[in-house]
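Quick question about two entries, pasted in order.
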Amino acid sequence: MMDIRGLAYVVAETTDLARWRTYAEGVLGMSTTPSPDGGLYLRMDERQFRFAIQPGLRDAYVASGWEVLGQAGFDAALATLQGAGVEFVLEDAAFCARRCVQQAASFRDPSGNRHEVVWGFQSDFERFNSPA
């Protein structure tokens, strides 16, 4: 069984990072910081980000990150995917660093949407400070 604890983050692609920054800070009250891929992390709580906005050629949803509890929860999630015949990719250290997690695995649902199962968020020990 996959014991998902919550939606960890959403990843989106945009043609206009400045518009996202303005919307996040001015309307949503989120703080923004540059992400390693040249995009933006949008922060609303103790996590380094809840939305990762990456530059691209379209304005679109990219992925949902689903949090499980610890290594055991992660292993159980992978076993559930494998048992259901769902192909997944165990992501590398560079990917995990961009998502600020210990481990991540990605897979696609029947409609083609990307999902990422993650655990072990890394903290930057910064407090959330809304620009609003």
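Here is the second entry:
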Amino acid sequence: MLTSGMFLQDRYEILEQIGSGGMSYVYKAKDAVLDRFVAIKVIKSEYAQDTTYLTKFRAEAQSAASLEHPNIVNVYDVGSDNGEYFIVMEYIEGITLKTYIEKKGKLTFKEATSIGIQVARGTEAAHNKRI
């Protein structure tokens, strides 16, 4: 796990953890070279030694980097630093859909349809690239 103030590759300053999943953490960071905020997905240490998972992680980064669509975040970089494997992505300000639903409760038909269409359009873009 990374902490605030750490740097990856002497370029990405970790600001705060903004999410986590089963196999990775996501951090908000500052790109010191391009002077912008980014999101960095970092593999959890228990998976960093698993060559099969690392291969899948790199393939995910390469696949995602080939996509350009308004409903899919852009991938800017992929790398490793002192055993930390990461993907650098576009940072989108706001809350997750999960948090939105938890705060709002039941979505209206119009909201649910709009969200579903956006997800489907992003998925279609990925399928069109055979991902």
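Reply: The longest strand covers residues 12-20. The longest helix spans residues 109-128. Hope that helps.
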